[in-house]
């Protein structure tokens, strides 16, 4: 046991400085493609280039290829493809949580009293497990979300935010609805990962409803598959109005939109 | 003012009338008559007992003078009066309750009501006569009558095999106890001039060490059987589930007290224990009973069996208090001894009240749900709100939570245990420390036990169709519970009025008044007296100890033990003030809450049940589940027997069904009675060998034994 104490003293404080300072360590984010849109000579070329994306994050509009960030699963296929090179950059940012509401509205929803005490109920709606393990990281010393006033609670009766991961399977529909109903107002819903936003790699099927937004209103979305812990932290901070949510056209990503529409 | 003596004869006449009417009246009117006559006679003895308790004027009636045995005497002193009063307090509500309760189809159809009415009144008379008996002969006669009538009442459902078995065990163990008591009386009366108590008391004064010990052991064992102390209480957890609930209430609320009455009468009054070892035995037996009782109470799921074990626990606590009193008295600390006796008697009074209440509650549940197993109850608070409320009061009292009565007496008992620091002997101090630890554990487990009892029966979902069909019992069953619940509250918030009465009671055998030790005269001596000087009183005045002085009677509302100069207050509390503060706090916070949330909208959502599609009753927590941690922790005590039954597929590769059953045999049955029974059977088998059935052989036996006797005679 003494070794733990010694080890702790020796290694000092390792917790990230985010949100006070930007986190610069390598590998904290899988990142997204950047430098878009890209213009091609012909419309056909553009649609060939866009077709490489497995989740239809790339969309061809005439000669242009645009990126719908919430659908991207950082698979690098667009970067690797050589026939119609897209020739863009990769960015390692992580502050990418988006919201259908502007910051002032978010801040008003919870008010000042929740700024340093927000309780989360995590709901696994058919997630593959990676999203959940990222949430787990938040509880660990490196990210340590308690220092920011975020806590996980087992019962929705005490929860302010319902964190949903997974493509919303049919089986979890009833539990999700009753958990949402059991939460006291003010309450918010956080859609975690590509799955919860639109169905992700699973899409919509007889067993999956493709996103939480088809059942309950969503207040904030965290793109990524899985989203890194810092992105989740950013989402939570944005939810109570402590930081600005990322700018992004949500309508083009159409939460709950179907795959292959 | 009516003469208590006359009233007492009125009581006997009432009981007689009850017996005659029960025998003559048709079935329908019988129950009503029982209720009326039973309550009237209880009221009479309440009056008689109360008058003697308050006035302190003992009365005596000389009955017949029996040749060579001396006079038969009835005498009621304060000690008897207290027990008579408690008996009245229990019998009054039980009589009212019985009228409706005995209406249960399972009783009406198979068993006549006549016998019940007759035995009930006879039992009441026998109990009161036992308590006022002033000589050995009437005491033993009444004792026997009480044993037999209580057996007959417990054995009311005599067509059930379990019931007859339990009844028979109760009777046989009780008779074994009686034999011990008779022997003790004989030893005591050997040198006495008569059989009345004063003569016995005089004879006891010159008793030798050895006979004193013999008398102590015999009487403690004999009365201990009735009181339900270890190691002879195995009849109690069997008799209670077998008896009708109203009889159970009497059994726990009155009859167990009679055993304690015997112990007190014998070992504190007639022949006060002189040896510190005897006191230690009482203390240890009491503490072990308390612990064993509560351990089994926690794990039992039958409501009445649970209550039976909890009775053992409470009797154990009372006995431990008595033991502490004996030890302090012998060690020359009369003040502490007085407090210990007061604590024990207070607990006895309280136990009678709340245990009767809980048994009536269990009876009401049994009456309307037809089920006593807590695993299959649940949700009754919605259909039986009043019964639930009264049961809750009983549960809070027995779990010793303020402001109810159990708290005061259990707190006093534990405080008494802590005063053992004033003793000089190291060994006794260690014993005290261990016993106090056992009692503290007991108190904690009691809370677990009654959280379970209330929550699993009255809260949650109904776990069986029977429980979901229950309806509230009628008024004549609610009223008795209400009376007892009210008493529980009153005796809890007015300890400073009860303690002086108890103090007078114990003065009948300690001959010293200790009331100032526990209830300082903050009301009557506001300027202070020698023991409570001016500064002391004014200090407490600032704390509010004199609030109410102008309009309340009595000594004060604070229970406090004053020590030496060096340690002015050893312990102090006041449930009366606590109660007022509690009401103000709760009311105040309710009002505050209402005011603060006036403009808010209230949102009511469905129950959160973990998101299951449908919350089925069988998914909810059961009594077995709730008490399982205790079962696991005390595995070494319970030593469960586990039966596993498995069914496999033909080739035995897969299990299709696994059934595991767990049984906890009562520790005393396992460790004492089963081996004894085996020994008895073995001896009988051995002796059976010499019984061949041939007459010639028996003639030879007679001849041989005659020869042996003659030889012995010759040699001596
Ligand atoms: S990284 Fe993969 S998912 Fe994201 S845009 Fe490129 S191809 Fe599509
Ligand atoms: S978003 Fe990606 S990581 Fe998260 S549950 Fe869906 S597939 Fe798994």
Task: Describe the overall structure.
The complex is a heterodimer of chains A (261) and B (716). Chain A has nine helices and ten strands. Chain A has 261 residues and is of the alpha/beta class. Chain A has two domains: 43 residues, no CATH class; 157 residues, Rossmann fold (3-Layer(aba) Sandwich). In chain A, strand 8, helix 6 and strand 9 form a beta-alpha-beta unit. In chain A, helix 5 packs across helix 8. The longest helix of chain A has 11 residues. The termini of chain A are far apart. The C terminus of chain A is likely disordered. Chain B is mainly α and 716 residues long. Among the domains of chain B are: 204 residues, no CATH class; 239 residues, no CATH class; 49 residues. Chain B has a two-stranded antiparallel sheet. In chain B, helix 6 packs antiparallel against helix 7. The longest helix of chain B has 36 residues. The model of chain B has no long low-confidence stretch (mean pLDDT 90). Classes of the chains: A alpha/beta (261), B mainly alpha (716). The interface between A and B is small, with 13 and 9 residues. The site of one iron/sulfur cluster (SF4) has 13 residues of chain A, from helix 5 and helix 7. One iron/sulfur cluster (SF4) binds next to helix 5 and helix 7 of chain A.
């Amino acid at each position: 046991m003494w070794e733990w104490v010694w080890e702790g003293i020796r290694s000092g404080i390792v917790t990230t400085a985010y949100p006070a300072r930007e986190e610069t360590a390598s590998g904290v984010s899988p990142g997204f493609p950047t430098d878009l849109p890209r213009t091609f000579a012909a419309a056909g070329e553009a649609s060939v280039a866009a077709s490489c994306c497995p989740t239809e994050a790339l969309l061809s509009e005439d000669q242009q290829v645009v990126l719908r960030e919430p659908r991207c699963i950082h698979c690098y296929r667009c970067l690797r493809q050589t026939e119609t090179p897209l020739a863009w950059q990769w960015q390692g940012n992580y502050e990418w949580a988006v919201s259908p509401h502007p910051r002032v509205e978010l801040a008003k929803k919870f008010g000042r009293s929740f700024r340093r005490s927000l309780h989360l109920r995590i709901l696994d709606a058919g997630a593959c497990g990676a999203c959940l393990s990222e949430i787990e990281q938040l509880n660990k010393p490196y990210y340590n979300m308690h220092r920011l006033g975020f806590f996980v609670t087992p019962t929705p009766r005490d929860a302010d935010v319902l964190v949903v991961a997974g493509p919303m399977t049919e089986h979890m529909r009833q539990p999700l609805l009753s958990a949402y109903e059991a939460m006291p107002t003010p309450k918010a819903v956080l859609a975690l990962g590509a799955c919860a936003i639109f169905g992700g790699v699973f899409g919509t099927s007889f067993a999956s409803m493709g996103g939480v937004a088809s059942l309950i209103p969503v207040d904030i979305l965290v793109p990524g598959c899985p989203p890194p812990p810092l992105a989740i932290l950013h989402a939570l901070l944005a939810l109570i109005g402590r930081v600005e949510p990322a700018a992004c056209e949500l309508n083009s990503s159409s939460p709950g939109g179907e795959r292959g529409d | 003012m009516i003469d208590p003596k006359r009233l007492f004869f009125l009581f006997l006449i009432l009981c007689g009338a009850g017996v005659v009417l029960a025998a003559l009246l048709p079935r329908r009117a019988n129950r009503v008559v029982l209720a009326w006559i039973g309550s009237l006679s209880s009221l009479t003895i309440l009056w008689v007992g109360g008058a003697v308790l308050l006035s302190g004027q003992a009365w005596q009636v000389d009955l017949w003078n029996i040749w060579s045995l001396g006079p038969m005497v009835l005498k009621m002193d304060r000690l008897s009066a207290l027990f008579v009063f408690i008996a009245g307090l229990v019998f009054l509500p039980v009589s009212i309750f019985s009228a409706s309760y005995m209406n249960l189809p399972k009783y009406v159809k198979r068993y006549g009501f006549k016998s019940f009415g007759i035995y009930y009144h006879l039992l009441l008379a026998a109990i009161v006569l036992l308590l006022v008996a002033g000589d050995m002969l009437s005491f033993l006669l009444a004792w026997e009558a009480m044993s037999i009538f209580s057996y007959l009442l417990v054995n009311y459902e005599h067509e059930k095999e379990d019931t007859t078995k339990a009844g028979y065990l109760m009777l046989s163990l009780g008779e074994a106890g009686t034999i011990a008591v008779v022997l003790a009386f004989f030893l005591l009366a050997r040198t006495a001039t008569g059989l009345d108590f004063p003569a016995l008391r005089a004879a006891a004064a010159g008793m030798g060490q050895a006979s004193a010990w013999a008398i102590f052991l015999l009487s403690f064992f004999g009365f201990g059987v009735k009181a339900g102390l270890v190691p002879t209480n195995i009849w109690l957890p069997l008799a209670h589930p077998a008896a009708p609930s109203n009889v159970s209430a009497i059994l726990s609320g009155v009859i167990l007290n009679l055993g304690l009455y015997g112990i007190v009468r014998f070992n504190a009054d007639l022949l006060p224990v002189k040896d510190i070892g005897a006191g230690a035995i009482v203390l240890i037996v009491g503490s072990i009973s308390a612990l064993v009782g509560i351990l089994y109470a926690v794990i039992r799921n039958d409501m009445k069996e649970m209550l039976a074990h909890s009775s053992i626990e409470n009797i154990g606590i009372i006995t431990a208090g008595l033991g502490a009193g004996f030890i302090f008295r012998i060690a020359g600390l009369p003040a502490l001894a007085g407090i210990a006796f007061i604590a024990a008697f207070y607990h006895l009074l309280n136990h009678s009240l709340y245990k009767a209440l809980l048994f009536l509650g269990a009876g009401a549940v049994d009456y309307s749900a037809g089920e006593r197993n807590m695993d299959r109850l649940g949700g009754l608070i919605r259909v039986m709100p009043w019964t639930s409320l009264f049961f809750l009061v009983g549960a809070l009292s027995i779990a010793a939570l303020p402001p109810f009565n159990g708290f005061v007496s259990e707190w006093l008992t534990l405080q008494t245990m802590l005063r053992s620091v004033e003793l000089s002997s190291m060994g006794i101090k260690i014993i005290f420390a261990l016993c106090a630890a056992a009692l503290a554990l007991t108190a904690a487990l009691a809370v677990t036990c009654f959280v379970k009892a209330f929550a699993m029966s009255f809260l949650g979902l109904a776990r069986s169709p029977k429980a979901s069909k229950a309806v509230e019992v009628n008024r004549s069953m609610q009223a008795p519970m209400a009376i007892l619940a009210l008493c529980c509250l009153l005796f809890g918030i007015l300890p400073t009025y009860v303690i002086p009465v108890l103090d007078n009671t114990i003065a009948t055998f300690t001959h010293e008044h200790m009331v100032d030790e526990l209830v300082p005269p903050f009301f009557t001596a506001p300027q202070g007296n020698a023991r409570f000087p001016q500064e002391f009183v004014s200090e407490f005045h600032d704390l509010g100890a004199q609030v109410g002085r102008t309009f309340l009677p009595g000594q004060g509302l604070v229970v406090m033990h004053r020590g030496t100069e060096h340690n002015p207050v050893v312990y102090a509390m006041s449930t009366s003030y606590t109660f007022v503060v509690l009401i103000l706090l709760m009311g105040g916070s309710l009002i505050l809450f209402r005011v603060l949330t006036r403009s808010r909208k209230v949102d009511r959502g469905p129950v959160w049940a973990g998101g299951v599609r449908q919350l089925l009753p069988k998914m909810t927590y059961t009594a077995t589940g709730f008490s399982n941690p205790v079962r696991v922790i005390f595995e070494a005590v319970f030593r469960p027997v586990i039966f596993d039954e498995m069914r496999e597929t033909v080739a035995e590769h897969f299990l299709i069904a696994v059934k595991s059953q767990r049984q906890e045999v009562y520790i005393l049955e396992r460790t004492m009675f089963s081996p004894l029974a085996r020994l008895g059977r073995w001896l009988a088998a051995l002796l059976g060998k010499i019984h061949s059935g041939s007459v010639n052989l028996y003639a030879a036996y007679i001849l041989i034994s005659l020869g042996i006797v003659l030889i012995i005679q010759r040699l001596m």
